[in-house]
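Handoff note, outgoing to incoming analyst
You'll be picking up this chain. Sequence as last confirmed:
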Amino acid sequence: MVIPLNPNRGWRQQLRARVRQFLVVVGALALISAVGISNAAQAQTVEEHDAKAIFLFKLVNFVQWPSEGSGDLVVGFIGADSTADSLQRLAYGKPVNGKKIVVRHLNHDSDLKGYNVIFLGSLERKNAPSVLERLRGASVLTVGESDGFGQHGGVVNLLLNEGRIRFEVNPHAAERAHLLISSKLLALATVVADAN
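Most recent structure output, in case you need it:
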């Protein structure tokens, strides 16, 4: 994409601004891609639940909710306590798009109103369809970590594949939830569709 220069600004200012924009995009994409490191490297530097927390922390920058109010970004975890604790430590004092991240531990019977993100751990695989059905049509980013999560209506699915964390995105599920997923994120994801 070529952006024309603004004749009212000095070329050095414009170049610096473009370099900053480029570095922000590249840095964000690099951090999302960083969760694809090998298990051997993860064992030395980061645990799997920490990598997933980092991914989630960066993921919310690439999602737009229909009403971007000034409230907190509330993330509920069902059956993924280690990832929840990691995200809570990671997000402490670090707002995302000016919003404080609030982490809550839930179970599959919890009231799910008022959440921006619901993360379903792999141990909740059998409860995932009922949770997804309860959230159908709500503007909630659903994130899972089990086979078939995206095909059953989840928006984002994190999978461990050959020692790397990969992710799937179901754009139709995002559309039903009235969420706008950045094309930059979709370019890095495996795109899946609903199972019929």
